[in-house]
## 1
Amino acid sequence: MQYRQLGQTELKISELSYGTWAIGGSWGKTNDEESLRALDVAIDQGVNFFDTADVYGDGHSEELLAQAIKGKEDQIYIASKFCRAGDIFSKDTYSKEQVKTYVENSLKRLQRERLDLYQIHCPPIEILKDGQVFKVLDELQAEGKIRHYGVSVESVKEGLLCLEQPNVAALQVIFNLLRQKPLETLLPEAKKKGVGIIARVPLASGLLTGKFTKEHTFEAGDHRHFNKDGEAFNVGETFGGLEFKTGVDLVEEIAWISEGRESLSNAALRWILDQDEVTTVIPGFKTVDQVKRNLEALNVPAFSEAELNKVNEFYQNRVHEHIRGSY
């Protein structure tokens, strides 16, 4: 495992880390015992950073993390998120009193006294333009509730707006082979300003595992069913904004990247890791096997310049026009 500095913070985090949305819920059936075993394997293999949120299983993923890292709290960095447990369009959701309540509830579930990274969870752009929430986070940082703060964004425009705030330490962005727009301006600007990049939805909600056919159906409680067209939240969070069947076709076209890299998912994660501006990539997981398979990406060959150019041309010529939503 290699470790990368998170922006200008003192945190050195594993270049491949894990997101915990799936073990909290909204990805079909879960098994807590298997989730805890998977977390143990990740930690044993050097993963020292986990991303969660208060709405993942109504706090359940935070509770699972607390169990998994008991006795190892000083070795593991935790990032959580807030605002989506309330009305994301109301300024009251971002008041000092409310945000303090959110962070204290997360700390209680995580059994911690301070969060390493606290992120605004995909707020409307009007909230980012208003900017008051950043002053609230500055105050919570001064009080010792959080070490650093950042923003999880849906679009490049939102990300660039956040970079205008001097104390934003990290941006969490949707970034994968099928969602390359951040490469154009956002990632270079973040690097220039010393802001860390956390790449989420790295496998496009499973599309980039190559395991799906067009006939595949998802469980009713899986966001890949109930949010497939953006019915519940931003469509970009599901399949990176692609219509499912279109995504399956596109993945077949890009499958050549797996040659010499064991699997398509390995290659997809390796491609993200090969981007210099990325601090860490956070695939999700529900099983021990998924954790182990994702970690294999660390050992496969990097992309050559010719391959990188070919992947970029594929995105520009075949993928870009099919992405839905604001990105």
Note: DSSP finds 13 helices and ten strands in the chain.
## 2
Amino acid sequence: MNNSNNIYVAKLGKAVGLQGHLRLFIDSDFPEQFKKGAVFSTNRNLQLKILEYNASRELVKFENYEDIDSAKKLTNQELYSTIEQTKENCKLAKNEFFWFDLISCNVFENDIKLGTVKEVHRYPLNDYLEIITDIELVNKGFPKVFLIPHIFDKFILNIDIENKIIRVNNSFDILENS
């Protein structure tokens, strides 16, 4: 199930009421993707199509699960979207990117290649890019991995997804002090 094309977006809680509604615990920056007609797969390989979603009450109801007994079977399942669906359903603002697009981007400060993005970590105050340090720098004694805060202007100058390049600022200092 966990092929890299699937993105975890929510978990289903317990059934609420008799009409097949379930609690929905969203783990995504794009709640707008949970709309009538949207289809998600689950960690048990079910395809679920949303019949209705009530954002204020955090309740969701799926096609063919329209009573409490069938809905109960979905409790605790995880919902996944695909990269394609996510790109279609989620509109990005300026300087917003999908984390899966940032992975494997090369990171440069001035003309020095600092490394490659391995992972994006989400912390309460900021997201951080986990960077695998370029081998030339590792050979000079720098740490193999370091974190750059995902803060525009202060650290991130420019992200070019097409060419997989992120230009940064003040990040060599972080590497030196890591």
Note: The chain has five helices and twelve strands.
## 3
Amino acid sequence: MRITRYADIGLRVLIYLSKADAHRAPATVAEIARQFDIPVNHLVKVAGQLARVGWVQSLRGRNGGLLLGVDASTLRIGTVLRELEGDAELVDCEGLQCRLSHDCRLRGALAAGLRAFYEAMDRYTLADLTRGASGEQIIRMHRNFLRSSKEHDDSATT
């Protein structure tokens, strides 16, 4: 099974915000897009959905940006993937008009596999994914971005 690019972007946004948020400096869409080489228009769509479900807080204005809207230790990765991927079957047997659909065991096997995948993902929280070296790297990325933005702003005003 492979997750969609949409869900991948959503996970990256949440992971990034979980550590960038520790500094109480909102991360901008442009920052996250640059850090992960993601098209801004894709990131805006994903961030919008994350904000609608309450996982991301969007702040407007000059010092605006995105903040994590939930406690990272309570947000289950399975929950995130269900929201971003949907809970649809892996194969649309009805749409294919498969001649085996009445007696086929593949549909049940795939459904069991999908359930097992989500159950495995439910064992992890957002906080679990950002412990250790990954979390430290995100903190450095965010600090470096803020530092370079400040230097850019300072040179533009002089």
Note: The chain has a mean pLDDT of 86.
